[in-house]
Amino acid sequence: MKNAFFLMISAWMLTVSAQSPLLSVYNRETFSLNGKWNYIVDQYETGFYAYHGTRYDELENPGNGAIFLDKKPQNKSELIEYDFDLSPTLMVPGDWNTQDPKLFLYEGSIWYRRVFDYAKKNHGNRVFIHFGAVNYEADVYLNGKKLGRHTGGFTPFSFEVTALLKEKGNSLVVKVNDTRKHDAVPTENFDWMNYGGITRDVQLVELPSTFIADYSVQLVKGSLSMIKGFVRLNGSGKQQKITVELPEIKLKQQINTDENGYAEFALEAKKLTLWSPENPKLYDVIISCETDRITDRIGFRSIEVSGSEILLNKKPVFLRGICAHEENPLRGARAYSKEDARMLLTWARELNCNFMRLAHYPHNEYMARLADEMGILLWEEIPVYWTIDFTNETTYKNAENQLTELIGRDKNRASVIIWSVANETPVHESRTAFLTKLAQKARSLDDTRLVSAALEVSTPSDNPFLKRVHDPFAGVADIVSFNVYVGWYDGLPDKCDRILWDIPYEKPVIISEFGGGALQGLHGDTLTRWTEEFQEYLYRKNLAMLTRIPQLRGTNPWILCDFRSPKRLLPQVQDGWNRKGLIGQNGSRKKAFYVLREFYDKMSRGENIPN
């Protein structure tokens, strides 16, 4: 009987862990669990594994050693070797690395605990816990019961807690582990700070017993007036009448969901004002059913390629871009708030950008939401970075899941025009098959946007001035994008004058990275590395070199701001920072910032664009 009970509980845990994330939590009324959480550093995972290696949460009677039980001794003789109440606190959202000096380079497991009260507004409603992101692996428990596990440090996930929730004294425990692993996505080796912790918002979301779980509202690819989409319900009352409405332009349609809670719709919008960087028009879109109602702010635009052109709303566009990490350089910490996102996007606007590459992983939802409002086009990416394990099916499933969760979250954001499936991956058969499957998955989930990846250039041994892009994935992608560092890793800036290009694809080209490092405030001549003058000169030479590519339709210099990276070791210059930013860690604009701003200002007026 005990074994049967254990199997039943295990099956329940597996079902819950596979739960799809809640979508459009941003548009819901929520109860925030942000704030101070107690934490316990558990480097040896003593609270997760018993001494013989069995996981406590797989045992019917885990005993007092299991930290997720959050137990207090009942008498003086009872042995319990942890105490959340006596433990220090960390702020959530936030990384642990910059909140406690002892944790700055810590990688491993930390247990978080938050105690909260919650009374449901309606007895029949359902309640979910929603995490914006946890880096990298999260095991989640409520009141001693496991909700499930999520893998991947940058995408949202949710668990239903209706049956476990109490009005008083709920104990939410999360074991977070950010250990880098060979078979993970990303793998052990990457060029940014491995910020551990609960890095984005944690919220309770109360919903009707049957609610609107997912929806898509977008222009049909190639059309400027036909809006199509779907609505999916979750709950027992799946067959309902659905209303989709854009009240500003008096559009309204009623449809019925099938037995699976799913329905598709189509609306002809002849008076639609199209979204663009110059006019980021958003409409209130109201979706309602018999039991639920949600309002989202959605913009409508088309994005496609034709030959070497990128067409936004059927008109050629040049993408004046910049790369960015999800980091606030003024704090030297993971960016997590709406204010952080607005600061980064405002700096991009100051550069005269209409485009931003969110590297090298999914950024906070605030970025896409604010980019919608501010009129900045986005490249969004998953962390298939450098040399991950391309032959491992589990690794592929991890990457595909992160892509699926990203597209699910941001598919209604007009600002997002490119899904990127990789960065700087070496060309070989298993890698190309891996990336091709991801591209196919992206298109199956969303056929309205473009697919690309940041590729690499090659140089033939007999001609150091010839740069080739010969990559089979370039034939799969909608846009040929690649990183090039002439003048920094490859010679000095004057080498740019002699570079020739071999790019045998009739597709638009976007330079996904170029640039070089400078320490803010360090000055010298144009041949002295790490000075602002060297970086300034490098930018001038690179911009002149890149505009000689006939099919060039966008540039994304690396990078907006200096950012932390343990790979960058040069004392008194790098000190654990990648210094390729146009803005230093103190917020100062380096000289190259103004070079790029002037270049983009001219481009916005139609100058400098290759024919």
For the CA atoms, what is the radius of gyration?
Answer: 25 Å
Helicity range = 10-25%
What can be said about the biggest beta sheet? Answer: 9 strands, parallel
Uncertain segments of ≥5 residues (pLDDT<50)? 1-18
Number of helices: 8
User: Judging from the principal axes of the Cα atoms, what is the shape?
Assistant: globular
Percent range for β-strand residues = 25-35%
Brief sketch in words of this structure:
The protein has 611 residues and is of the alpha/beta class.
What does this structure look like?
There is one protein chain. With 611 residues, the protein is an alpha/beta fold. Helices cover 18% and strands 28% of the residues. The protein contains 8 helices and 35 strands. A 9-stranded parallel β-sheet has the order 21-33-32-30-28-27-26-25-22.
Outline the secondary-structure elements.
Elements: H1 2-17, E1 30-32, E2 35-41, E3 89-92, E4 109-116, E5 126-131, E6 137-142, E7 145-151, E8 157-160, E9 170-177, E10 202-207, E11 211-219, E12 226-234, E13 241-246, E14 251-256, E15 262-268, E16 283-288, E17 293-298, E18 303-306, E19 309-312, E20 315-316, E21 319-320, E22 323-324, E23 327-328, E24 333-334, H2 338-350, E25 355-358, H3 365-374, E26 377-381, H4 393-410, E27 416-423, H5 429-445, E28 450-456, E29 466-468, H6 472-476, E30 480-483, E31 500-502, E32 509-513, H7 532-546, E33 552-555, E34 563-564, E35 577-578, H8 591-604
Parallel strand pairs: 21-33, 22-25, 25-26, 26-27, 27-28, 28-30, 29-31, 30-32, 32-33
Antiparallel strand pairs: 1-10, 2-3, 2-4, 4-9, 5-8, 5-10, 6-7, 6-9, 11-12, 12-15, 13-14, 13-16, 16-17, 18-19, 19-20, 23-24, 34-35
